[in-house]
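Still learning. Show one?

>
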Amino acid sequence: IIESELGGHCSDYVSIAKNIDLNNDGINELFVEGNGNFGNVSTAPIWVIGKDGDSFKILLREQGEIYEIKKSRTNFYYDLYFPSRRNVSSSFLSTYEFNDGKYQLQKCQVAFFNGSEKPYKIFDCGETEKIEKFESENQNR
């Protein structure tokens, strides 16, 4: 399934990182991570793959360095959280819920950091003008 997306032999690009049952049906879903052979991308893709009858399908494709399986569930599947680097001083914080046969973005935020793990300012991703204004006012921090 990933070979068709990447256009080559997937073992050159990915590895299975986690094998977990996300919906308690007795069949494990796979978290497959890119291994860094993706050019200038600072974070590699992560695919969540599930069994669909006799075949497999991609339930989610996201960029990231890490992810978290939340305790909360939507439609029997655990919700997923992906923080991913946006640039040197900010990250996207994305939460996904399972709807209509795949994971869909439920919440997206842009978090700004100032040398610590805890963000000092957070915006919703749709607040583009506020984000741009904040970035221009805080360029020299």
